[in-house]
Amino acid sequence: MERPSLRAALAGARPLRVGWSCLPDPLAAEIMVRAGFEAVLLDLQHGVIDMGVAPAMLAAVRAAGGHALARIPVGEYQSASRLLDWGAEMVVAPMIETADDARAFAAFMKYPPDGQRSYGPARAVQLSGLSADAYRTSANGSTLAVVMIETRAALANLDAILAVPGIDGVFVGPYDLSIALSPDGEPGLDRSDTIAAMERVVRQAKAAGKVCGAFGANAALVRRYLGLGFTFATLSTDMDLLAVATRAAIAEVEG
Ligand code: 3PY
Ligand code: MG
């Protein structure tokens, strides 16, 4: 049976299970898929992953049957094209604040006439199983350009950002967003002002017909954010899962 596209999977009956990868290891990313994540996001912003290891990680996730997502460092829009070339199906751009930021990102994500993505997707073609022509003509629609909403400016400019052609969705970073909203720079992942802002993002994104995701630091927050109506919420990180499982295993032995 043909694997559904990421866009179709995101529109499914239940939210996609999405893992978060910081460690630069294809095997670790593959194991997360085999253990139950249907998609894994490679974090090139805060994780240790770089363009040297990302291609092998994207391939490992996809070979195990998962969808491969990636987050670029702040403002490095040219990396978005490279990650698409190596098989990313969604690219997330952090700290987008204005429609101009979103336009600059979208230009690197979409082939002409929609944008200015340069042509060279040999590996993405291989991983897709499509012909080169079929990949080229479907890529603008099948790969997703997702902007992070995590500052006061981004909230203020949200409708203008959502209206930028080529932007397929938004992704809330609740750490940065809550720090930005707090008068004393304190994070608060389920603080009432953070939740109210996230509800607003969901409402506006859905009204614009866009995908909306959020970073979920743990299971309780994932449930909370999905309850607000987010299309998907990523669950923890590989580093945290390893630490949590290690503590639990030691506690089980030692009681
Ligand atoms: C945030 O919460 O600000 C993030 O970017 C998650 O990594
Ligand atoms: Mg952030």
Automatic annotation (TrEMBL):
UniProtKB keywords: Lyase, Metal-binding
Top-level taxonomic group: Bacteria
Keyword Kinase: no
InterPro entries registered for this protein in UniProt: Aldolase/citrate-lyase_domain, HpcH-HpaI_aldolase, Pyrv/PenolPyrv_kinase-like_dom, Pyrv_kinase-like_dom_sf
Transmembrane segments: none
Every HpcH/HpaI aldolase/citrate lyase domain range: 20-242
GO molecular function, one term: metal ion binding
GO annotation, cellular component aspect: cytoplasm
Family: Belongs to the HpcH/HpaI aldolase family.
Protein name: HpcH/HpaI aldolase/citrate lyase domain-containing protein
Organism: Pleomorphomonas diazotrophica
